[in-house]
């Protein structure tokens, strides 16, 4: 306990799934967590739950597909707290395993905007403040889909996150500003409920499944949050530009 004591941490996509659990874990570890997502009712409930357990949280409702809202999130946190110690870029939307041949322009644009471009906007806006303070940790949430094990748009966005992560790490190496990524494997969230899976492309999931060991158990959202916590905390202060797969060995 206390591994993030006194830290100011932004967690995007924190209204559900991995983001929600990460926010709860961070609060238990002493961080003041800024919750960011589109659904205010869920953010309000999460903040209340964190505070009921003795933690500290604020929330900002934002559509991260818009550059102006990404920049406003950073500006609002700086205005209120004066710094950002940790940025977790978790917000993302699925592409329902649509292959290249069946990916529409609209689907491609929306997935790239949220899953990759918003991370660029948030990192760019945050890094200047981290550089002024001479410290900071960014954790980007990619996916095993970055290896092509998803639809065309999602795989491309998540692969792009890995290169962005390394690019930032190279730029700030030795400056006490770190950027790392996790690659979650199958994890029970709202993105892969039976109802959600029923909307997926009927062909591509079977194709990608041939490249994944489906006999291994799914990871929990707690498993994913603990990996994110490791990169966010000083326990990993010697690591930057690293990409950690959290999938119980399914893609080994």
TrEMBL record:
SUPFAM superfamilies: NAD(P)-binding Rossmann-fold domains. Residues 7-187 form the Ketoreductase domain. It comes from the Bacteria. It holds the Pfam family adh_short_C2. One of its GO terms (molecular function) is oxidoreductase activity, acting on the CH-OH group of donors, NAD or NADP as acceptor. PROSITE patterns: ADH_SHORT. InterPro entries: KR_dom, NAD(P)-bd_dom_sf, Sc_DH/Rdtase_CS, SDR_fam. Belongs to the short-chain dehydrogenases/reductases (SDR) family. This is Short-chain dehydrogenase/reductase SDR. It comes from Rhodopseudomonas palustris (strain BisB18).
